[in-house]
Amino acid sequence: MYIVNSTFQVPPEKADEVIRIYNNRSKRVDRAEGFLSFQLLQNQKRAGELVVHMEWQTREHYLQWVRSEEFKEIHELEKKYPDQELASIIPKVSQYKVVST
């Protein structure tokens, strides 16, 4: 299994708005080959810290998704979000190979 976390900071007063956006996400990634799960995590001490947590069967499946046209389309739409403060956020991406369960 392969895990990808994208951690980003938003102003705490905008955290609920971002959570709503993710609750209404297109779910296109859910249909990608090798995709296993998606979770949006919120830090309990710092409400503005959010993590997109995705699980994939393999690193190759994840890379196939990142190189896909659907991935590019989704991320182009994010850049056009009306709130430019949110649209300009660049997450810190961490990738992990599961080595034991």
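(the above was protein one; protein two follows)
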Amino acid sequence: MRPPTHILVVNGVKVRRPVFVIAAPHSGADLLGRALKRSPGFHVTMGRGPVTRVVYAFARRPSIARSGGAPRVLRDVLAEAWQVVPASCAECTTACREAGGIIGAGPCVGPGTLTRFGDASPDLIYSTPVLLRAFPDARFIQVVRDGRDVVADMLADPACMAWVKPHMLSEDAEFPNPFLGVRSAEHRQRWAEMPAAGKCALRWRGAVRLNAALRRELPAEHLLTLRYEDLVAAPGEAIDAVSSFLETKVSMIALYGATIPRPGGWRTRLSGEDAELVEKVAREELARLGYR
């Protein structure tokens, strides 16, 4: 039995059923976060500095996330991120401000209109166990995408490439390491020598496995799974599913204003060697998710 919901009040509003968007890198969490962020009554943050630092601390050292104080730490940084004050959005990332359509220095939402809170920060997936303990009534939306397209985008993203350097898997690294996709210390040298495409594939594979574990643990009323490809091909149906899941109206307009990579772009963006490596590393997960 889950513990009772912690009572958190932000801007005079009780935080009930917060929404968290989780996915592997470049799998569409930002796209869905954008839609939620522009929906009436929602205050969704993306990549606020304090939240990001805590998320990556938990991702790199899972033992910290298992500590008794981890839920309070994450709850506190999210409560701070959700505060609406005149200069609050000045601390947001460019991606978050753009997603909210921010012009000037004002906040992206009015405190008097808030009913729901959420977060769609990159790599939030690695903090899911802590979020469950911090917010037992939380709603999670996980987005999955073809791992080959994910790797193509990761290879073009300097922020993602910063995590695949050999020193990231240092001697004091913890194993298994879902963040880098390495199961044991015995694979440390193999990971260090692997081409970047392979390391990106391992990160995608690790995130997909976390998604699968979450699907086994959470009941349907707490978790919704979407495909990136469906968000692109049939945004209306995808957003209808999100609206039904969250029991509130979610905006679809934001999806049409975004620059969205089309599915299957990996065929021209990945070299034959990289595509073969990705399919070798993630063959089981690609097949299970229907990406032939």
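Reviewer note on protein two: Residues 147-218+262-292 form one domain.
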